[in-house]
Amino acid sequence: MSSLPVFQGGHPEAAARFVENEPRTHWHDQSLWFVREKRDRAASLVPDWEALRDAAAGIRAHVRGRLPELLEEFERNAVARGAKVHWAADAGEHNEIVHRILAERGVTRLVKSKSMLTEECGLNPYLEARGIEVVDTDLGERIVQLRHEPPSHIIFSAIHLKREEIGELFHEKLSTPAGLSDPTKLTEAARGHLRQRFLRAQAGLTGVNFAVAETGGVVVCTNEGNADMGTSLPPVHIACMGVEKIVPSLEHLAVLIRLLARSATGQPVTSYTSHFHGPMPGGELHIVVVDNGRSRLLADPAVRGLLACIRCGACLNTCPVYRRSGGYSYGWVVPGPIGSALAAARDPASHATLPFASTLCGSCDAVCPVRIPIHDTLLGERRTLAARGLIAPGKRLGLALVGLLLRSRASYEAAGGLLRFALKWFPRFLLYGPWNVWGRRRELPAPPVESFRQTWRRTRGPLPSPAPRGKGSPGTSAGGSPRG
Ligand code: SF4
After folding, report:
1. Where among 259, 292, 325 does a domain terminate?
2. Residue 387 to residues 380, 382, 383, Cα–Cα distance (Å)
3. How far is the CA of 260 from the centre of ligand 1 (A)?
4. Residues lining ligand 1, CB < 6 A?
């Protein structure tokens, strides 16, 4: 079975290892672009799409402003419906609570539907180390679990794998015929394998897409129905949610639900949007509400907007960097633009390369259903890293040099002239030395005979004077970059 390692190191090093496999990089890029185009078509069929995005952004901002009281309202209503609500300050507490619930009931077999929160908390290894079998039941999640890998995308967990690789995996782990790579047959094999796990499970754990304060219910969206199987067969249901998953009412939920599936997969709605209001007859429903650093983000005006994320994955699918560097290159549980921004907001020292894993093209902002200013946030995080001395010395030096060159027209024009001369006359070993990162995988362009300014002067006369810089003048927007 070919393997794709979960890369270590900063993003540039890890991305370099991903792009070594050119066919995979190309195919990964194309697969995600296909999803991006599906999202565009789905959005274009909703006449009030942009108004919906505005409404969603407003709802998420409203939730941030009233989070404590909405959470209390949710707890009151959930308890009134028979659920038990647990509060976890961090990942450790979350894992302890889930383990205690299972251990007190003698549970040793748990089925689990997709939950990025439990990935964030490292729940699977925690439970497995305590003798509990955990089976991920979302197909993509089960595939990466069988490979002992984390998901590489928040929606399409196994997007980095080709069906032939999944066929090899299933042959080894599920005894399917050698060489079988037909997706329908592989899915049938997975269904048979998972059905046995559902039938013998003693508890089911789900993530939570939304929790509705006014009803005390939690909402779980899946396409495979695995969350519903995992919560209707065993008697114990544990639902794990971050504090930010709250919405005030069903009316608000409707806005976000209309945006979620279209943004995630281009579907009008997920196949299953299940509402859980209290336990099933004779069963138990435990809701674990987790902070794990979210209150700290909420307290910081520069990054609190990131808590609006509804984990649709649209910013990953559109990002030219994510599409060509793969989810594992980010080294954090949530990859892509939103993952970079969140990881650096939580722990800048450990994720200092991630705010630079962006072209700042603004494509992420253009698709985000809740209008998070992702690329502006990434730019702000770069400033924070610089101010805290967390940028690598080589990059710092490069930025200082570019800053010097751009400071005056004379130095900029002199550098341009020198580069044109070098491109034309310098020997290849000098041009493509280890200092030329850009040229490692690309040919440098043929130099133009003259610069743009020289062409202008020759054909149109003197250059116009630069416009005074100030509020509202071109090039002074917060992001300093075009929006996609
Ligand atoms: S930041 Fe926006 S586009 Fe990206 S996953 Fe979150 S909601 Fe979706």
Report:
1. 292
2. 11, 9, 6
3. 9
4. 263, 309-315, 338, 367-370, 372, 374
Overall domain count for the chain:
2
Rounded Cα gap, residues 18 and 24, in angstroms: 8
Task: Give the model's pLDDT for residue 478.
Answer: 34
Place of tokens 């149109």: 460
Best substitution site from 312, 318, 321, 322 to test ligand 1's pocket, by max atoms within 8 Å of Cβ?
A: 312
Give 265's contacts (C-beta < 8 A, 6+ positions apart): 35, 38, 39, 155, 223
pLDDT of residue 467: 72
pLDDT at 400 over 70: yes
Give the pLDDT band of residue 205 (cuts 50, 70, 90).
very high
**Structural domain range at position 398:** 393-460
Burial class from Cβ neighbours inside 10 Å (0-12, 13-18, 19+) for residue 38 reads middle
Per the DSSP assignment, residues forming a β-bridge with 272 are: 222
Alpha helices (H) in 116-241, listed in sequence order:
116-121, 123-128, 139-146, 163-174, 183-200, 226-232
For residue 422, tell me if it sits in a domain. yes
Segment 388-399 mean pLDDT: 90
